[in-house]
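Escalation from tier 1.

The customer reports that the assembly of two entities below gives different structure tokens on two consecutive runs. Tier 1 could not reproduce it. I'm attaching the input and our single run for tier 2 to review.
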Amino acid sequence: MSGHHPQESWESWNSRDSTTIREEETFELGEDGDLQGNPPKKSAMKYKDGSSIDWLHEEALERERDYVKKSQKSIRSLLSIWADSARVWLVVVATGIGIGVAGAWLDVLVKWLGDLREGRCQAGFFYNQVSCCSGLDPGEFCTDWQSWSEYFSVRSIFAQSLLQSSIYVTLAVLFSGSAAFLVNIYAPYAFHTGIPEIKAILGGYVFDAFLTPWTLLIKALGLALAVASGLSLGKEGPLVHVACCMAYMLSRFFNQFKHSEAQKRKLLAAAAAAGVSVAFGSPLGGVIFCLEELDTFALESDVMWRGFVASAIAAVSLQYIDPFGTSKLVLFQVTSGGDTWRAFELIPWLTLGVIGGVLGSLLIKLNVEIALYRKNSVLNQYPILEVATVSAITAAIAYLVVFTRVQSSELVANLFQECDPARGDYHGLCNPTAMWENVFLLLISAAIKLVLTAWTFGMMVPAGIFLPTIAIGACIGRAVGMLTQSIQTAYPKAWLFLSCPPDPTIRCVSPGFYSVIGASAMLGGVTRMTVSLVVILFELTGALSHVLPIMVGVMSAKWVGDALGEDGIYNVWIAMRQYPFIPPVDYNDRGRTAADAMRPFGTLVKIQEGHSTLKDIENLTNKYDFHGFPVVRGRDLIGYATRNKLLSFLGLHLSADTSIKKCRFSSPKQQLPSVENNIDLTACLENSILHLRKEVPQAVVVRMFQKMNLHQILFTHRGQLDGMLTKADVVSLLAAHFPHTGALSAENER
Amino acid sequence: MSGHHPQESWESWNSRDSTTIREEETFELGEDGDLQGNPPKKSAMKYKDGSSIDWLHEEALERERDYVKKSQKSIRSLLSIWADSARVWLVVVATGIGIGVAGAWLDVLVKWLGDLREGRCQAGFFYNQVSCCSGLDPGEFCTDWQSWSEYFSVRSIFAQSLLQSSIYVTLAVLFSGSAAFLVNIYAPYAFHTGIPEIKAILGGYVFDAFLTPWTLLIKALGLALAVASGLSLGKEGPLVHVACCMAYMLSRFFNQFKHSEAQKRKLLAAAAAAGVSVAFGSPLGGVIFCLEELDTFALESDVMWRGFVASAIAAVSLQYIDPFGTSKLVLFQVTSGGDTWRAFELIPWLTLGVIGGVLGSLLIKLNVEIALYRKNSVLNQYPILEVATVSAITAAIAYLVVFTRVQSSELVANLFQECDPARGDYHGLCNPTAMWENVFLLLISAAIKLVLTAWTFGMMVPAGIFLPTIAIGACIGRAVGMLTQSIQTAYPKAWLFLSCPPDPTIRCVSPGFYSVIGASAMLGGVTRMTVSLVVILFELTGALSHVLPIMVGVMSAKWVGDALGEDGIYNVWIAMRQYPFIPPVDYNDRGRTAADAMRPFGTLVKIQEGHSTLKDIENLTNKYDFHGFPVVRGRDLIGYATRNKLLSFLGLHLSADTSIKKCRFSSPKQQLPSVENNIDLTACLENSILHLRKEVPQAVVVRMFQKMNLHQILFTHRGQLDGMLTKADVVSLLAAHFPHTGALSAENER
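Tier 1 run:
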């Protein structure tokens, strides 16, 4: 464990947030007592923010509750079981509807704020451009919508564009500045995407301050402002966070979730699926995302079902509200479904995959460097100013380059479309004479967006990385597609293009679909996800035959990206912020065993049976903030006592003679010097303690932590304790290859 | 462990199949040596058919191989790593294409054989009715296709129908008889659906005879014959088996899969996904099915990706071949996508859910009873005759009732359609005056199909349960839909129906969609799956708004079914055949601990360090067929030695003095009487051995076996061995509630 002291880092996790985070947690619904007035169960463990829950313990508690309820054969207990289940479904369904509605209104709000940057509606200030001009016959000119220069009756073209651009930039700065202000003052945890934190929380990290209603409100509002400001960010990740906040808020109305960290997490997993479902209009994508990226359904089989229900209900709610009146669920409808593809196209698609992998890695590296710079420079002091400046720069550049002026979602939607004379031209993309200009502009836009995204993702505003990544990839993909198309039309007789239809008026290469591949590849490079990306993009395009090219793009990008840098951007942020999250990866232990990683016996803080007194134990619990302590007799392992149980025992038994009586843990009495002078602490021992031999390969140990959500493993040899390994140790083992581990952790912020 | 002796049942698994199954395994590609001529690794474990693999051991081996390859920094080792990966993908892609092609040709074959029962094509014997009559103008009458009475120029109507029906029944008997003959003589493992076995194999059961090319051939051929014979069975489950056989066959060409049971299983998981994908034309459904029902992706994260790739490629291949020229992937296209539904329809849908749950349970119970009867009666002796008789009865009844005469898939496709005057009437279903007759006929058909399916599923032919279940559910659903519709049209002003459009010509209730719900509910009742069913049916209907009703149907059926009987039909068969499969369910231990389930110390077969001699160990390995033996010193646990390692050690060290030298397992030497007279067997100990306290709740132990694919857990207290629990014990623990556990196991067949 090269230099890094595992239990210490553990302790710091435990202690640090109790001061920095607890202040936020203002949302407490009533006291801890049961609704029926029963006192809270003694065995329910209290976790501080920043600690990790003990899954085995939590699940044991839940089983116990279940068992108690089911063993009482009364109608009341039967009703209580039904009510428990009904409450779960109530929260799941309400979260689904809630996030569907929230997603729809967010879209409406963003559209209105975004349009406000260009003009206003005469019929009413609160109409956006589309609804302002709705109800017109085709061909009729929309007079209700006025650009600002029309509104202020400016005639000179120079003054017009000056006015338009300055209002555009000013409003952008105003929106993003208010978002940053809100986040900075009211809910600092509402910044960023939220997915790294959700991953950690679902894995057992306790971080309730991250899910308060206050955070929910600020994140949703700030997100709308930030997206409308035109900053290079998306709403996808933050929507997952919003959905989780919603589920948490709803769950607080019921005591059954308050007392069970495990139940709470199962609800959050379902909420996360609903969030993705709304963000992409892809209900199955939501389920698979939770499965692959959040690794949540390892929890229990019915979590997948709940996630699916929540995600379907969310998608249906969104479709029912139909914010844009298109009755389409997906943002970027792709129309090229019917087209077939040819084998030679694999060459540009593989190229796109490689580009996606390289640029994805570059984006991650750039983002990390900027985050470190922000942290260690004077920028740290002025987060709002930083947001305002970046937003002003973004808006100014955006106003100059045509492809960046529209909102990213609109740009992507247009790039995904094929050129079709019947449906008009998007930003001049379909003008065949301007091909080189367009390719140049697309590549410039991609480069600008890459840098801006790397900067934006991590600023003090809610910001998702999905949409900007898609936009970068779509620009590059379209450019490659247009190049391929121009080569094909220039040399239609080349052997490579023989599979194309001989009739030159029939399109052989579909640049719009290249955009989709480019976006897939870029997403693959940045997030390193596989199945969920393909499913999401499959639900966008709808055409089964196009799944294979998307797979090729995602897979080659992932391979190239993995070769250049190990992790996706979410895992990089988890490592930088040092959350106790064990990624579901295969760990290559290079032949090392647990003995190389464990804290050896000598360095452990232990309770010595027959030696330690209650006073000693009290001192121990005061001095160390560990989750628990191994109990030994000499070197023989007796068991493992959790801090919580010791504390509650101490609370009951602290009397005058604490410094005399020795502790006993169900040892045969004759082994202890005098029977009167000892006190039985057997009740403090944990039952579910895993022992392994220290010769076990590290990969097996890691697998155990991953699969069983363990908190610690003890290593014994013939009954003697050799050492111990905690979740924190495993986390640092897995993050050891990443150079900036913990660089942004709250610990370092003090 | 009420009466059931775990280690004994274990032994019988090990021993029984070595005689009954080994004979089948004729497919061996070359010798066990490496392609490069290296001798096989000493540490590779050999498993007999009928045993369970040791996942931890297999994975450790794989890691070791990986490590060795990666630590050699030569180009050769790099190429070898690439080649390994390339071979995996080669097999995955080839399996995908293979099963896509096989599925398409199966469809063609079934269609041709099925049509042959009614007539023949003049233009060529090998055309089916559709291709025989293709190329005609609309309205033109097809003269090429002749019914048998036309072919034999029979004029009298009575003689016509006699001839037609006797040819119909005769061919049905002939087809099903040949299928049963083929299965019975050449590949007994090709009978039934195959999914229970695949589940067990993916969980670690060793059953190579189940996956031979011979089984592949007979299963595919027999399946076509059985489906064409009109027996009440489907092709879905068997296609999964066929896909797995294909992957196994392809994998045998490469040594890397021969030596690794874990790698082989990862391939099989991908193949199973491809099989489902082809069976339903639902690539995502395939992935989710593997996830939910086969519980395979717990293995490793990249297995899901492989499964997805295989399943997409299979679906694309199927679509590319396009066996029916419809360029539609799914069998039962549903056209009612655009319709909305009303709240009052929840009442009939919930009713359908309840009916599905009740009938599903009934079907399972009936099927179990028939299987037991078949086993214990004289039927056991005449499997082919049984098939022929049931097939004759099925065909005779089918000829009488209009809805059962067509093939199930055609019936289902028609029941799923809404009545539309433009598209003609299906079997008179849309005749509003014959409503009551139709409802009656539908219910009769459902009842007939239910009994026939319960009988057919388990006979000596390849048989899936999905399609017949869908057909039963679709009949009932359609009947309920027609009843609802008639009530609504009779009382359009009732408050319940106020949400319907006032115009009576606009359809308010869509009976076709009720069919879909009925099918979902019935499937839910029989299989107890949730997400994968909904995804498969969602991919069939395509309409997001209809996902919610399908969910309601599946969920209520599952609840009712679970209340009536615990398990889905696959798990019931697994229990009856006593495969070592641990279902991924929550185990309710009712407060019991591992101490109640484990084999206590006294009953264990142990190796006593310092007492046992090599001779003793030889006797032990000859006498007991266990996977391994705990090594103790007194009661102190030293370790666990696998039979395999002991055998290979014995092979090297068996010399004259075996009965004198005592065994030593890395004990300090002074503890043993004389240093010269002992021999060091430390190398035989396993590293990855889990110890727990016996006070651990059973639920935790079960969870460990489920998640970690363990083979055994040892229970210790202060270094002393208290007992042991093996996978076999856990399997019988989980199957204890089922009354007929092991009733059909191979053991009982002798």
